[in-house]
Amino acid sequence: MKLTFWGAAQQVTGSMFLLETDDYRILIDCGSDFDLDEKDRRTRYDEQKSVFPFDASMINTVLLTHAHIDHSGNIPNLFKEGFEGRVVCTEPTLALTSLLLKDAAHLHQKRLNSHNSSSNKKRGRKKKDVPRDYFVEKNVIEALDNFVPVSFGQRYRISDNVAITFYAAGHLLGAAHIVVEVTENGEKKKICFSGDIGRSNYPLLIDPQEIPQVDYLVCESTYGNRLHEDTTSPAEALADVIKRTCIDIPGRLIIPSFSVGRTQALLFTLNKIYADHAFPNLKVFSDSPLAHSSTKVYQRYVKLLNKEARTFHADNDILFDFDNLIYLESSDASRAVSNYNEPCIIISSSGMVQGGRVEQHVEANIGNPYATILMIGYASEGTLGWRLLNGQDSISIRGNKLPVLANIEKIDVFSGHGDQNDLIRFVKMQDPEKLKTVFLVHGEHQSMTDFQGKINEFGYKTVEIPLRGHSYEL
């Protein structure tokens, strides 16, 4: 049996791991790589003559840990390049992945339309090749027709010699740790793929489930050398910010937030705050059609949420909608919020302030000393969110250089990733005498090496940090 690391190897995004037995090939996750810019991705794909470094048609089954695009975003391309198998995931992951992939296809289509329109206007212009990793809605529909949902805890056989079990990982509705059992030459081996590990006591989501003893562990390490800073509850932390920025002074609060997962945690927490604190008539604008659709999915799967959410739902009949919450669907409605002069809260994507409607809200308010931009998650280097967090006194948005007069704040209670303590807790579910190897993935290199040293201290001696394309015989 061979395991090859084709993504999230000494980097954060692009999760993709190939497990090969004597007669069966399984791809665990098939994510988009955002660590490379578009030029570098083009170069890699041209060198490979494919989006993938392997023949897509040779894959028998894809196992999907969760819906986020850095884990699911290249699944339509796998089908485009000849994959004919199944994609196995949980039912909520299927629902959320459908939304995310269709949203990505819509963006690809807009870019293709813009490119074609520009090419037609300029005669003699050399037509640029369409990026290999672009897909459109028909490719998404083809892929979704081949998804197979399974339940948490249900042992599911995908071939004569391979069985899988999904365990709730927290992090996102439907997210899973996947344990793969392979029988070769009469010997059974178990490999766990962590996916993204959630944190305890996170809004809406259950805590990560304990997994059984395995022989090999593929573990994410996003927060391998960091601890979450805030120790208060999400409701307490958010209520404090709202009081200071919208009530004590007549200001507006802008919260960049990812549409799937983060926004639902925010809306649920705001619903609780409004019920518990009797805040004044303060409007909340949720400005993301994708977030609105995702919120409906969360509402549909209340039974898979944590006890607090289920109890709140039983008492109030609904998790997210509350007085003064307004969903903005159209672009015109989004732009019109700039003319709303009362104190308010605006939640909009993307979470890193890189593209999406939130850019226009930041642009309209960055020069307002009565406005506050609240960052609630990680922003990768170079993004507008990263520049705001690093205290730059001016920023450029869509070619306009603007002074930063708005207040910039940060809380990390809404981060969906477990921190170093959560990762250690996950690894320590395994007996170090029985666990043969830990493979660290999905993290920055320094985070991986620091976490490697940390778990070495607990007796886990064989801890590998694979390079992209590196294979291991298990």
TrEMBL record:
<dbReference type="Pfam" id="PF10996">
    <property type="entry name" value="Beta-Casp"/>
</dbReference>
<feature type="compositionally biased region" description="Basic residues">
    <location>
        <begin position="120"/>
        <end position="129"/>
    </location>
</feature>
<feature type="region of interest" description="Disordered">
    <location>
        <begin position="110"/>
        <end position="129"/>
    </location>
</feature>
<dbReference type="GO" id="GO:0004521">
    <property type="term" value="F:RNA endonuclease activity"/>
</dbReference>
<protein>
    <submittedName>
        <fullName>MBL fold metallo-hydrolase</fullName>
    </submittedName>
</protein>
<feature type="domain" description="Metallo-beta-lactamase">
    <location>
        <begin position="13"/>
        <end position="258"/>
    </location>
</feature>
<feature type="domain" description="Beta-Casp">
    <location>
        <begin position="263"/>
        <end position="388"/>
    </location>
</feature>
<dbReference type="InterPro" id="IPR036866">
    <property type="entry name" value="RibonucZ/Hydroxyglut_hydro"/>
</dbReference>
<dbReference type="GO" id="GO:0016787">
    <property type="term" value="F:hydrolase activity"/>
</dbReference>
<dbReference type="InterPro" id="IPR022712">
    <property type="entry name" value="Beta_Casp"/>
</dbReference>
<dbReference type="InterPro" id="IPR011108">
    <property type="entry name" value="RMMBL"/>
</dbReference>
<dbReference type="InterPro" id="IPR050698">
    <property type="entry name" value="MBL"/>
</dbReference>
<keyword id="KW-0378">Hydrolase</keyword>
<dbReference type="Pfam" id="PF07521">
    <property type="entry name" value="RMMBL"/>
</dbReference>
<dbReference type="InterPro" id="IPR001279">
    <property type="entry name" value="Metallo-B-lactamas"/>
</dbReference>
<dbReference type="Pfam" id="PF00753">
    <property type="entry name" value="Lactamase_B"/>
</dbReference>
